[in-house]
What we know:
This protein is α/β, with parallel strands linked by helices. The chain has helices spanning 30-39, 60-68, 84-95, 102-116, 119-128, 135-143, 149-156, 162-168, 173-185, 190-206, 211-218, 229-243, 245-264, 290-302, and strands at 3-9, 17-20, 45-50, 53-58, 73-80, 268-271, 282-285. The strands form two sheets. Strands 1-5-3-4-2 form a five-stranded mixed sheet. Strands 6-7 form a two-stranded antiparallel ribbon.
Amino acid sequence: MKQNIIEILLKDxxxxxxFFIDVxxxxxxxxxxxxxxxxxxxxxxxxxxxxxxxxxxxxxKRFFLMEKLNFKKITLKILNYSSEIINFIKFLKINLYRKxxxxxxxxxxxxxxxxxxxxxxxxxIFSRLQLKYSSVNLKNYLSLQHLTHxxxxxxxxxxxxxxxxxxxxxxxxKSQNKFLKLCENLKLNSNKQKKVFxxxxxxxKREDLNFYETIEKYFKKxxxxxxxxxxxxxxxxxLLKIHSPDYYNFIEKFNNQKNLVLSxxxxxxxxSPSNFEDNTLKVEIFFKTYSELKEKLExxxxxxxxx
Length: 307
């Protein structure tokens, strides 16, 4: 592969056609800009050239920052032009040394699908990224294009689960941001986010409301009020009450009975399960003698403590 390193005046190429690929997210050029100010250009910008057309394979950010900072000269490493798809593959080989976040993968696949419409190239990208190719996986990554900026930011900062982000991307922008604000305000982890999303989605379908309307109707205060553990507990209690009223009433009855027993039988722990689908309940009885154990079991029978 023939290549030449040259130094030219920046103004001499400003009127040329400049092509580049930008898949970065988030965009933060502050460190690079400071480095250029302090140290100047340290490495050549890699381009493929065809007459007055320049395809930037590596160094797009540096090129435009140098233009912004009014650099007089720029150093280029010029490759022989072959084709647009070969230039794209060169870009992949050079840039895939780092780990791409899910939004950058989505941007890369979008570029490939929209510009080249070549499944072989798309499969090559999956292979280079060490991802399993399937039409479903491709569709899922492309769906992230519809995620709001708020959602994308949470995803790349690992504060939003990828599978949940894919589901969220199918909602309108208002619904996405309303849900994400709710999760952020309640400091919900990934597992809780998933649980909350599924339950609110069920409620919205049952009541024929869209996702945003459901949150506004039932849970608006929880995305506004200052966080506290009491606020989080109250939210989950109300979520359960609205989503599963029969189950909520059962839990209420169970807890009342449990509290009555614990107030009358000392040396006893009863752990309320998150659900009763497995028909198990953990009860700890502390005793020193068999007669003490027998006495406590008899008291449990007196209170008719059973599910």
